[in-house]
């Protein structure tokens, strides 16, 4: 290739080519550059490749380089790196396969036409070799990303699926990615490959930044593997390979961590699986997966609605309903007062209808639904019938019920303050029975107060149920601060670190926006008790925790995650949790009564 500028030390310099003012000459020069680059062994090849990487990230829908052969060039460069290790080790060529796979992924993430061109250019075989782990986990990450984009489109999915090992490799990678990154990079600071560190931090950062980015990339490696599997899960013929019990039981725990909150991860794949009758049959046979879906459905997880979808579909399917109903019904009943969640409108009404149909279908089937589950569903149906009756009830009668509920609630508050927690719980139950169904704000307080009682009575499951009902009734949904905190403590008692962490973080967010003097952050400082719980759960839910325990828990000095992997004495945390619960108990019970009365609001008691 001729020089474009005489003062450039590199013949055929890509950057000089791009400065060519004549569009026709520039295109011809770029075309020649892409054709010749894979066969050249000059130094400095990584520079134009990194420039192309920046261009692909900034302008992924621009067809210019697609039409000039960039996919053929990138595929050839990956093959060169795989086959010629001497070239790969020379200069900075070690970076080139990573950038080449990343460029392919960027140009195929939005445009099906570009994906079709990539497939015709032969990018899939070298990407599959990277996926196998022929180089390192860093290249696996960008390979699974690119293959995931290619598998997204109907026209290019068959080309990916033709490589039968892709699905199995993706399943293996989703299951082992965190351990791979921990043991191959995170664990030993002095053994980290230099080019890995440079790619992670772009040369701007030390050990601590490398470790944080490694956690983020490990999460992406897992989530992008799940995204690739998800493309296969829409096809019934692949479900048998996906729905292996040991994989399904792990899926709910693949949540991406706090560093990758934009991916639905494991629960997203479960939702796709549950859209199919075949998939539902597999999921229904894994009790651990059903339990985990119930936990996600009763949490403040951004993907809560996906777990709810799974549970509803499992109950609606006559072939799976009997297997799961006793586990699923209590969760759906707790969510029956929710209004809107995700794309759901009137979700509570949908849940009631589904459970009612389930009862009708069971009919005279002996042993189909347990007596306890039937009683709980019947109670839900009666409460919804009561709500309908209240619409025609005279206002005076409603006021009498409101006043009676208030009196009983105040009795409960008094018992609570005197330390009679069991007696207070009974009074709050009585008040709930009296309180009109339409008085949502008061029912939020009653459920939340009773949840606190159950906490102190060491009944965390009951506390989670009541706190969830309070959060569903609250407007906006999942934003009642005290119920979030109480549920966070209950999850902590059961050892559900992720669920406790999400509730505790959301509690702090609500406190920062609250006008309640008991909740608002003083001097913008997070309460000590909340900070302690968050730190505890961040350690317990740390993305690398299992890998660290398996590999001896060696950590890089100064990394915040260092504490998460260590087996520190938990007695401090248990004491803190007990102390927090005790402090909550010795204070007054919530008294946030707001009744609607003839168009104006009356405060029947002091607000806390």
UniProtKB/TrEMBL annotation:
It comes from the Eukaryota. Coiled coil: none annotated. Residues 559-608 are annotated as: Disordered. Residues 6-244 form the ARM repeat N-terminal plant domain. InterPro entries: ARM-like, ARM-type_fold, ARM_7, TPR-like_helical_dom_sf. Residues 594-608 have a biased composition (Basic and acidic residues). This is ARM repeat N-terminal plant domain-containing protein.
């Amino acid at each position: 290739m001729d020089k474009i500028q005489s003062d450039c030390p590199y013949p055929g310099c890509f950057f000089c080519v791009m400065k060519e003012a004549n569009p026709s000459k520039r295109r011809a020069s770029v075309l020649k550059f892409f054709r010749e680059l894979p066969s050249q062994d000059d130094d400095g090849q990584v520079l134009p490749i990194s420039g192309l990487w920046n261009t692909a990230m900034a302008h992924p829908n621009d067809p210019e380089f697609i039409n000039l052969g960039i996919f053929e060039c990138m595929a050839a460069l990956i093959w060169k790196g795989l086959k010629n290790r001497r070239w790969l080790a020379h200069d900075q060529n070690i970076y080139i396969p990573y950038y080449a796979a990343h460029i392919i992924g960027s140009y195929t993430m939005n445009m099906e036409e570009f994906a079709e061109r990539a497939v015709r250019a032969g990018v899939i075989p070298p990407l599959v070799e990277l996926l196998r782990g022929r180089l390192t986990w860093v290249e696996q990450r960008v390979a699974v990303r690119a293959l995931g984009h290619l598998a997204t489109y109907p026209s290019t999915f068959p080309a990916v699926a033709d490589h039968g090992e892709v699905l199995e490799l993706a399943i293996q990678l989703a299951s082992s990615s965190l351990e791979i990154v921990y043991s191959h990079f995170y664990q030993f600071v002095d053994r980290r490959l230099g080019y890995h560190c440079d790619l992670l931090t772009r040369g701007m950062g030390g050990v601590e930044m490398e470790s944080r980015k490694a956690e983020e990339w490990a999460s992406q490696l897992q989530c992008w593997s799940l995204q690739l599997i998800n493309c296969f899960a829409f096809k019934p013929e692949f479900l048998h390979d996906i729905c292996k019990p040991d994989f399904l039981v792990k899926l709910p725990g693949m949540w991406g961590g706090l560093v990758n909150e934009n991916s639905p991860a494991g629960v997203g794949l479960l939702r796709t699986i549950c859209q199919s009758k075949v998939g539902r049959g597999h999921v229904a046979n894994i009790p651990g997966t059903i339990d985990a879906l119930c936990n996600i459905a009763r949490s403040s997880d951004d993907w809560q609605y996906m777990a709810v979808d799974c549970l509803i579909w499992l109950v609606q399917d006559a072939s799976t309903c009997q297997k799961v109903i006793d586990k699923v019904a209590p969760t759906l009943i707790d969510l029956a007062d929710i209004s809107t969640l995700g794309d759901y409108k009137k979700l509570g009404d949908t849940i009631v209808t589904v459970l009612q149909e389930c009862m009708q279908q069971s009919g005279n089937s002996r042993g189909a639904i347990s007596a306890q589950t039937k009683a709980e569903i019947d109670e839900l149906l009666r409460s919804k019938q009561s709500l309908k009756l209240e619409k025609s009830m005279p206002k005076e009668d409603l006021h009498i019920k409101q006043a009676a509920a208030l009196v009983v609630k105040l009795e409960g508050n008094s018992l609570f303050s005197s330390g009679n927690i069991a007696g207070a719980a009974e009074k709050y139950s009585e008040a709930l029975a009296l309180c009109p169904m339409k008085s949502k704000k008061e029912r939020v307080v009653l459920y939340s107060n009773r949840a606190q009682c159950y906490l102190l009575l060491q009944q965390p499951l009951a506390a989670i149920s009541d706190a969830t009902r309070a959060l569903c009734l609250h407007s906006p949904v999942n934003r009642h601060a005290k119920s979030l905190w109480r549920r966070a403590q209950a999850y902590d008692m059961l050892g559900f670190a992720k669920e406790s962490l999400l509730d505790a973080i959301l509690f702090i967010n609500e406190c920062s926006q609250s006008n309640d003097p008991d909740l608002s952050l003083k001097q913008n400082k997070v309460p000590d008790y909340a900070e302690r719980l968050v730190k505890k759960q961040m350690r317990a839910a740390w993305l690398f925790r299992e890998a660290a325990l398996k590999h001896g828990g060696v950590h890089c000095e100064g990394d915040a995650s260092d504490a998460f992997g260590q087996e520190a004495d938990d007695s401090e945390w248990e004491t803190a949790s007990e102390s927090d619960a005790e402090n909550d108990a010795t204070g007054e019970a919530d008294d946030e009564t707001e009744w609607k009365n003839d168009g104006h609001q009356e405060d029947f008691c002091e607000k806390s």
